[in-house]
Amino acid sequence: MSQPGTDSLAPPQTATAAAVAEVDDDTGLIYQRCRWCGSVAFRKLLCPVCASSDLEDARSTGEGVVIRSAVVHRYTRIARNESLVRFPEGFMYRCRVVGAAPHLIWVGARVRPVAGTGLDAGELVVELCDSVRTIDWH
After folding, report:
1. How far is it, in rounded angstroms, from Cα 28 to Cα 56?
2. What's the confidence (pLDDT) of residue 21?
């Protein structure tokens, strides 16, 4: 039988759902650090340097810097931005940047994960920390 105060109809929480909940609570990212060589990876099963499977989870601050930006029209009629983002812990990851028009995302822009978005979709969604720069043409 169920214990008082618990909902017996609630589905059990999976490891992925728990990781998404952790990301949403602190707006940080969970990444892996190799216990053998100390290198960092994001969403990997094996260390990219030494191929060890002994990875421990660590929490990132979540803020990163755009190092490459591109406007993509692939598989959809709506343009979107895909950027390569470098995180301070040492890993880079391709992310979708929201919060501005796709062509206004610049290299060097600071970004952070969007609260409330899950990692189940297979892409990391980040938003701009700073307002969009505008250049006055005279």
Report:
1. 16
2. 39
